[in-house]
Amino acid sequence: MPGDGSPVDPERSVVGMRTLVIDEGFPYPLDTGKRIRTYHLLSRLATRGELHYLAYGASGSESFAALEKAGMNPIPVPVALPPQSGPLFYLRLLANLISRYPYIVSRHYSAVFQRKLEETIRRLNPDIIICEWTPYAVFVRDLTTVPAVVVAHNIEHRIWQRYHEYEESWLKRWYIGRQVPKVAAYERRAFTWVRGAVAVSHAEAGEIKTLNPGLAVEVVDNGVDLDYFGPAPDEPEQDSLVFVGAMNWRPNQDAVTYFVNEVLPLVRRHRPDASIVIVGQGPPPHVRRFDARPGVHVAGRVDDVRPYVDAASVYVVPLRIGGGTRLKILEALAMKKAVVSTSIGAEGLEVTDGTHLVIADTAEAFAEKIELLFNDPGLRKRLGEAGRRLVEERYGWDRLTDKLERFLKELVRTK
To answer: CB 3.0-4.6 Å disulfide test: which of 63, 222, 268, 374 passes with 26?
Structure first.
């Protein structure tokens, strides 16, 4: 019987795996790139076997109910993660200076979660464990009975390096500088604690292999719901721009700050009516204040991003910090939108500058590309059509789930 400690049936392991996922929270609502990716891949995986989802959360929550409905068997750990503000937050940051682990790990680790995981492993006897974020590999560092795989949504130390590069506050820059080597050291260890790793791009898979050459690594790209994100039925508004991204994530905050302060004024020199709508949950006060700027509207969290994207002539991705690949670009391409992005914004995607989107890495170049697209509806249409073809061929969730499932089954077969 499952959970009685008996050996795993090898036929069940191949035909229908029993998968245990551990994560920071249940991936719902679908309002961040990580949640969107995780939900779409794992809800599909749950229809092909047995999947259980262990995460911080409450049994009566909306997210718990959503996972139950999707057949993902949520298992809540009813402990709240420490808040990211207030005096205690700064005391925790200070205390972390003497910890061997970086703050992104120590904040998420708890003995309660560890005990719940060990209890769940004994009860379920899973075939494989998915750590749905690199910091959660710390929970399986001593595990020898079940193969584990870590999903590297980003190469974390690269993000921290970019935080350090663009941070203007000397105190924050100093603290981030202390975190970068700790994050890098943690990642080197984390990729030795697991049987395999999933990367979201070939470039990041290569980086993981340099950290542990013997590790099994598979690339499972980010994807897009091709039915939900379809072409806009109406003509966009003239000289209109849109940015979509969770505004409680620092790389997105940096992106819109850079765009509003350095790019938009250049655009409005020639197009005084040009405007941008910033869409995404949790904008902090300094981002909300952009709403008072000419040509800027901060919409915040919305129930459906599609009307905002539909209305825009050009979709902008001015990211200077980040890793992994951007679901926001895939969604825009699926809607046949013309996209202007930085190289970092388009990093890891199989896109070609001038064919699927336009790349610009300085404020002046970014403004020039926007002006070009404002002036050339034919180019906008060609980019949109090529982008839609690309996502249909490569980035559908069903195709990506097939690839993930094959990789997990191979790890189970060879354990």
So the answer is: 63
User: Residue 395 is encoded by which pair of tokens?
Assistant: 């980035």
Neighbouring C-alpha atoms within 13 Å toward the C-beta of 355 = 7
Specify the CATH number for 240-394; select among 3.30.420.40, 3.40.50.150, 3.40.50.2000, 3.30.530.20.
Answer: 3.40.50.2000
Contact between 316 and 243 under an 8 Å Cβ cutoff? The reply is: yes
Query: What does the alpha-carbon distance between residue 412 and residue 415 come to, in Å, rounded to a whole number?
Result: 5
From residue 321, how far is each of 101, 158, 159, 175, 373 by CA, in Å? 22, 9, 6, 17, 25
The CATH T-level fold of domain 10-223+397-413 is Rossmann fold (3.40.50)
Full-model pTM? 0.83
Dist. CA 149–CA 133, nearest whole Å: 10
Q: Collapse the DSSP code of 219 into the 3-class scheme (helix H, G, I; strand E, B; otherwise coil) and give the result.
A: strand
Residue 357 carries which DSSP code?
A: B
Residue spans per domain, the chain: 10-223+397-413, 240-394
**Fold equal for 10-223+397-413 and 240-394:** yes
Q: At what angle do helices 33-46 and 327-334 cross, to 10 degrees?
A: 80
HSE-CB of 199 using CA atoms within 13 angstroms: 20
Per-residue pLDDT of the chain (415 residues; tens, 9 = 90+): 233 333 334 444 335 799 999 999 999 999 888 999 999 999 999 999 999 999 999 998 999 999 999 999 999 999 889 988 889 999 999 999 999 999 999 999 999 999 999 999 999 999 999 999 999 999 999 999 999 999 999 899 988 998 898 888 999 999 999 999 999 999 999 999 999 999 999 989 999 999 999 999 999 999 999 999 999 777 899 999 999 999 988 899 999 999 999 999 999 999 999 999 999 999 999 999 999 999 999 999 999 999 999 999 999 999 998 754 578 999 999 999 999 999 999 988 999 999 999 999 999 999 999 999 999 999 999 999 999 999 999 999 999 999 999 999 999 998 6
